[in-house]
Amino acid sequence: MIVQPKIRSNICLTAHPTGCARQVEAQIDYVLSRGPAPSSVRPSRNALIIGSSNGYGLAARIVAAYAFGASTVGVAFERPGGLEEGGRERLGTAGWYNDRGFLARAERDGKAAWSVNGDAFSPEIKAETIGLIRGHLGPIDLLVYSVAAPRRQDPVTGTLHSSVIKPIGQPFISKTLDFQSGVVSEICAEPAASQQEIDDTVKVMGGEDWRLWVEALADEGLLAEGATTMAFSYIGPRFTAPIYRDGTMGRAKEHLETTARALQGSMADRGGRAVVSVNKALVTRASAVIPAVPLYIALLYRVMKERGLHEACIHQMDRLFREHLPAEGPIATDAEGRLRLDDWEMREDVQAEVFRRWELAETDTIMTLADVTGFREEFLRFHGFGVEGVDYSAEVDP
Ligand code: NAD
């Protein structure tokens, strides 16, 4: 079939198999161009990445495999491509093709890598992954938890919880950007309707499942002495705070950060460490549809690019692994115990300039103030489109 982007309401419904594999290769080549990780950081031999098919998790897996030389196991929940009943060809998700792309390249490069496709929240997928680790790898010394999920079934009660991105207490009225049309308009996001919506979001995107993974590995004797575990958070600027950090998702991130501090206690007993890294805002499937956030990201990209500070997922993960995980001694954190990889995004001059442009942003000024083109290109690249060297008029096998 010939695969083209199909975008509805800023969601891309198609993914290009070759394009996805190529953009994974480009990330791998970037890490290779930086050479092996320095001896000043704690090495990893066996890494487990939960949420490994996209965004930060995929980039973390690539750095673990190609800067540390680690054997990797990735867990992700993606729709495979293939044949439907009746023989009709069906496209998989971008994450599915990213994962295939990673495994194919890893095999060519002689890297040990396994992937599990299924619901990481479920006891079944935990058991399958642990069986695989026991059979092929031995104790895990790096566990990266990078799941971004819309829902989670509680493994004990069976209740299905859904996460929402909403303000708390009052509506959030703000400017926003439709990055496809370039129109700047006002939106109003209604607040969470009940405490239940907040609690559900914490249940899905808080730290409970991360803790369950750490405990499951430890119980099976598959967490190495001196292991590092990390998960990812976000803070962002004050003008998106009502919809993010002070909203339902912010509550989940607070829970994740509290979980890190609790895990640090048990990890330290075995010479290990647990940390939450606060990462930079990036274009992803989720951030493209959060009110106000596309406008902030488009402005931020332009300001950071002008200052030579722009980073994509792979650059952030490469900097994290090479510079922030010392072989000895504690990881440098803020007063809340968080590693701040968003230091360049949150620099005073960057934030002041983004805010100045935010005030000026209208439909007729946006293209001169913000990197709308960069936003669109990155959004498409995440789905395998607009990748250099790919012939989009050619037939591909889904
Ligand atoms: P993403 O959507 O690019 O990737 C999410 C991953 O989670 C995918 O591999 C997907 O397959 C996996 N996943 C989803 N549900 C799953 C399930 N039930 N079982 C197994 N795997 C599942 O997400 P991302 O933007 O890279 O976000 C990852 C983490 O980084 C999140 O905690 C997010 O809040 C955080 N973060 C994101 C940004 C940003 O701007 N994107 C910034 C800072 C922090």
Describe the structure.
With 398 residues, this protein is α/β, with parallel strands linked by helices. The chain is 39% helix and 18% strand. It has 12 helices and 15 strands. Strands 7-4-3-8-13-14-15 form a 7-stranded parallel β-sheet, with helices on both faces. A hairpin with a 4-residue loop joins strand 11 and strand 12. The structure holds nicotinamide-adenine-dinucleotide. The site of nicotinamide-adenine-dinucleotide has 29 residues, from helix 2, strand 4 and strand 13. Nicotinamide-adenine-dinucleotide binds next to helix 2, strand 4 and strand 13.
Q: Can you tell me the overall shape?
A: globular
In which range does the helix fraction lie? 25-40%
Bound small-molecule species: nicotinamide-adenine-dinucleotide
Q: What is the tally of helical segments?
A: 12
Q: What is the H/E order?
A: EEHEHEEEHEHEEEEEHHEHEHHEHHH
Question: What are the segments in which pLDDT stays under 50 over at least 5 consecutive residues?
Answer: none
Average residue-wise pLDDT: 96
How does the helix and strand content classify structurally?
Answer: alpha/beta
Strand content: 15-25%
Q: Give the strand order of the largest sheet, numbering strands 1, 2, ... along the chain.
A: 7-4-3-8-13-14-15
Question: What gyration radius follows from the Cα positions, in whole Å?
Answer: 21 Å
Instruction: State the distance separating the first and last CA atoms.
Output: 7 Å
Number of strands: 15
Describe the main β-sheet briefly.
7 strands, parallel
